[in-house]
Design brief:
two-stranded antiparallel ribbon, about 200 residues, 4 strands, 8 helices, mainly alpha, about 5% strand, two-stranded antiparallel sheet
Length: about 200
């Protein structure tokens, strides 16, 4: 027909973008946010008595899922990896490190949390080790336990230093150097030997 509009055709890449833009997976963050906003929160706020208890349980479970989906902001999984004694501290230290190093990318925040995880394991395993060392009762099983605790402290210490140094290197400002010379000798103490007409611009 003359009046029939021509059907627009899309490339594979354009089709993929359009499909991804209008569709949502059941367990992705946008779907969960929409479900909370449009269904669960209104039902929770407007329900009564027994219905409210059921709605509150659903609301709590879905909110926890959302916290886990935004782990690098909520630190829920980090807190769950420790006993109650360290949960508040782990969140505060993670927030402080992220702020101190100005972590904006996801991998930077993840490194900050790895640093916190290792540090708290140092503290917790050191506490357990010291308690065992103060005990007067010595048995073969206790010796094995003490040896394992000592290894855990050493391992956590290495992981802490490694994660912290990696984070510091990532956030350190880049230094650009232009060296114009025919011959430069750099020794262990960083001495640079130049001819009179040679220079280094840093």
């Amino acid at each position: 027909m003359e009046n029939q509009k021509e059907i627009k055709k899309y490339s594979s890449e354009e089709a993929k973008k359009r499909i991804f833009a209008v569709s949502r997976f059941p367990n992705d963050r946008d779907s969960l946010l929409r479900e909370l906003d449009q269904e669960i929160i209104p039902k929770y706020l407007n329900s009564k008595d027994k219905e409210k208890e059921i709605a509150q349980d659903v609301f709590g479970n879905k909110t926890l899922l959302l916290y886990r989906a935004f782990e690098n902001e909520s630190h829920v999984a980090l807190m769950e990896s420790f006993t109650e004694n360290y949960r508040m501290f782990s969140k505060e230290m993670a927030d402080d490190l992220i702020k101190e190093f100005n972590c904006t990318k996801e991998y930077e925040k993840a490194l900050a949390k790895l640093t916190v995880n290792a540090y708290i394991r140092i503290l917790d395993n050191s506490r357990r080790l010291n308690n065992e060392l103060e005990s007067r009762e010595i048995t073969p099983n206790k010796n094995v336990y003490i040896a394992n605790l000592s290894k855990q402290v050493d391992r956590a210490n290495r992981q802490f230093i490694s994660a912290l140094m990696t984070l510091k290197q990532l956030k350190a400002p880049q230094i650009e150097m232009n060296i114009k010379t025919n011959t430069a000798f750099i020794s262990n103490n960083q001495q640079v030997n130049l001819n009179k007409d040679e220079n280094i611009k840093a």
